[in-house]
Amino acid sequence: QKGSYKHFMLKEIMEQPEVLQNCMRGRLLPDEGVIKMAGIEQHLPRILAARRLIVVACGTSWHAGLVGEYLIETLARVPVEVEYASEFRYRRPILGKDDVFIAISQSGETADTLAALQLAKQKGCLCLGVVNTVGSSISRETDGGIYLHAGPEIGVASTKAFTAQVLTLTMLALKLAGERGELSPDELKAKLHACSRLPNLVRRVLETQSQVVQMARTYRYASNFLYLGRGFSFPVALEGALKLKEISYIHAEGYPAAEMKHGPIALIDAFMPVVVIAPRSDTNYMKLLSNIEEVLARNGSVIAITDEGNCDLDDKCDFVIKMPEVEEFLVPLLAGDCL
Ligand code: F6R
């Protein structure tokens, strides 16, 4: 039931603080520096000995997988490959017993992801799932996994499931980082405490978006949008573009911000709004500022997503969406809510 909400998507957007809480409940023990994941615990030796993790998914779940790649490689230093299930299953991938396969799926029923999983299983990979729907086909075929606990997602586009997928992959990255000694016990505890503050921070993001109506009016006749981000935020830019396409029927492209100069810059003019995810915690924040200047020099309209304390962009951009300041690895969880 959608209760007092106008539609399911809005309800599911507003549920996100609770979803994050449910996803962490019983798993995250910040004071002890422990992350419990009952569904993968018995497979941990094989995961830790793996040559690489292969993450396979479609659509939004693939974007979450890309964020996971940045997180797991940066924090845990384990090689990760992310593939579209529809390509993976048909391209005779080279797989072995040393590989750990992770299927990501909200529904747990996507045919390409299921087929890719069955292929990986045949080749002897340990097969894990990051799935929302309990008892779904993908969850039944895997050797173990992590449920999202996001509740049913009815709306198009995916909202709370994407957030829960990214949080789950963040917890997995931190768990592997702790097990591999890439983070000291104190560093791990600090990062877990930072995660535990997320539900309140996301609530704040959702409560403070007063510009949405004005933005929608300003851009209602736009036929194209560009979304830019770097590092952890690059997959979030891809997801932003997908959401706009699905919901507004406006063509949109997501790009790594530095790639703009290799082609898309030719398209920028006053009729091309550009969304730039530019928090100051981004390792390449100064480069993002240059990207914004390049857009402005071509009369482009910039919508910046940045942190609350940042005033650098207030006078330059048409709209500045602010989110609480967090460490770089947590930015996708807040920026994703601003899209
Ligand atoms: C986008 C969206 C789709 C799904 C994709 C995979 O909002 O919903 O792109 O993400 O079809 O679906 P699942 O995650 O159920 O495998």
Automatic annotation (TrEMBL):
Keywords: Aminotransferase, Cytoplasm, Glutamine amidotransferase, Repeat, Transferase. GO terms for molecular function: carbohydrate derivative binding; glutamine-fructose-6-phosphate transaminase (isomerizing) activity. It is found in: Cytoplasm. Its EC number is 2.6.1.16. GO terms for biological process: amino sugar biosynthetic process; fructose 6-phosphate metabolic process; protein N-linked glycosylation; UDP-N-acetylglucosamine metabolic process. It catalyses: D-fructose 6-phosphate + L-glutamine = D-glucosamine 6-phosphate + L-glutamate. One of its GO terms (cellular component) is cytosol. The keyword Transport does not apply. Signal peptide: none annotated. Residues 43-182, 215-339 form the SIS domain. Its main location: cytoplasm. This is Glutamine--fructose-6-phosphate aminotransferase [isomerizing].
